[in-house]
Request: fold
Amino acid sequence: MGHIFGPVPSRRLGRSLGVDLVPFKTCTYDCIYCQLGRTTNKTVERRQWVPLDDVLAELKKKLTTRPDYITLSGSGEPTLFSRLDELIAGIRSMTDIPVAVLTNGSLLWRDEVRSQLMDAHLVIPSLDAGHSSLFQAVNRPHESISFDRMLEGLIAFREEYYGEYWLEVFLLAGHTAMDSEISKIAECVGRIKPDRVQLNTATRPTAEEYAVMVDRRRMGDLAAGFDPPAEVIADYRGVHAQSDFKAGRDSVLEMIQRRPCSLEDIADGLGMHRNEAIKYVEELSTEGLTEKRSCGGRLFYSGRHQPDTTEGTKGIT
Ligand code: SF4
Reply:
């Protein structure tokens, strides 16, 4: 499988060209809300999981797609890739397109990880809980990562990094989406001092069924618990009206209308990255065009009959 996927529409980053730097579900966490399922390789080992030269060569070919961002993200935790600084330097030497890094932030307490990220234009780490027991429950981190250590890393990175620093807080009903927990998270945010705080929630199928979405109105209320107020990441359906995305989405719909498929089936069958398949399934599910069923521990998607409507221009919110 290739290391580059997209461009895919992103709520925050416009058309984002993804760079996948680790094998599927190689991560320091095993979040209960992970859209990729449970972590199969929970590790803190940093190494060159994929060949740097191959990634750069593949990326170069995709630059003609003119994305808004080149985003280091993908199927696991990108800071586990040990040559991040060389990768970012390589990207910057071939294009002016800004480089963003989506990270869970769990390794920022390590000096070499912070220093390797210094030349990224934008880094978006996560903080999903304001104390240790909820951190353990929601993120299920590798045993060597404590809450205090993780938080120290987020603070230290802010002190050293001069690029844009957005903090993502992923909220779950019944876990973190309550005033008492928000005030603890907000206290941590006050120590980190990111440029922005963005609230997200489980709008996609999650690793555990009990990881449940917070409704939009409640998200708005919780955003007000931050000082300054956090932003709820906007609905990105409008971005998906782009014609290249629509073609892919229609192929996925056609496939799952024929037979129930897992994400893997869709990705393999249509020759796309799993992350792209997720985006399409999410879009279809928002439109009420899919049903999901769990079978033998795997999620399968099938298509509902598509209503006969003419698609108008969707507003970008
Ligand atoms: S949500 Fe991100 S950090 Fe959490 S397990 Fe999935 S890939 Fe890892």
Q: What stands out?
A: The CA atoms of residues 77 and 140 lie 14 Å apart. Confidence is low (pLDDT under 50) at residues 234-241, 306-317.
